[in-house]
From TrEMBL:
Family according to the record: Belongs to the acetolactate synthase small subunit family.
Keywords: Amino-acid biosynthesis, Branched-chain amino acid biosynthesis, Transferase
UniProt-recorded name of the protein: Acetolactate synthase small subunit
Pathway: Amino-acid biosynthesis; L-valine biosynthesis; L-valine from pyruvate: step 1/4; Amino-acid biosynthesis; L-isoleucine biosynthesis; L-isoleucine from 2-oxobutanoate: step 1/4
Pfam families: ACT_AHAS_ss, ALS_ss_C
Amino acid sequence: MNQPIGIAPALRPEEAKEKHTITVLVDNEPGVLARVIGLFSGRGYNIDSLTVSETEHERSLSRITIVTTGTPMVIDQIKNQLARLVPVHRVADLTADMRDAVERELALVKVSGRGEQRLEALRLAQAFDARTIDATLTSFVFEITGATAEIERFIALMASVGLVEVSRTGIAAITRGSDPT
């Protein structure tokens, strides 16, 4: 089928883009993260969220949690290409495997204000169960953990009372139950 230049073909329903949380267990050694990131950038895939930390010190293994968006075919390509990297021990798609997973994110939110704005920031923080980790006469730094959507709502509300800066960790995810991810 010939498509006019400049007009992208419509995605079929089965090709609609989906957000996936993928975990990758890798050797904790120099250059591994760069290789994983290179796989994404080299093929034009985007990373929405990325977290990495050593999780098994004795075996020197790190866990990379990646949130990405793509068609089912692209997500399958990403998983297959990740699995072929030499330092990769395991790749799990927490979204596609239909596993019951827990996802959380942490954010530090700095808010500045005086008077009523300051009181409203404290009320909002209390409503969202955010902890005050720093306070001055003119500002607060709140710590909030939860689902990404909850953090987005908190940040949006804080914008109206003096949001100054936000620092976010990205998503950490794990499956429920006794089986490893």
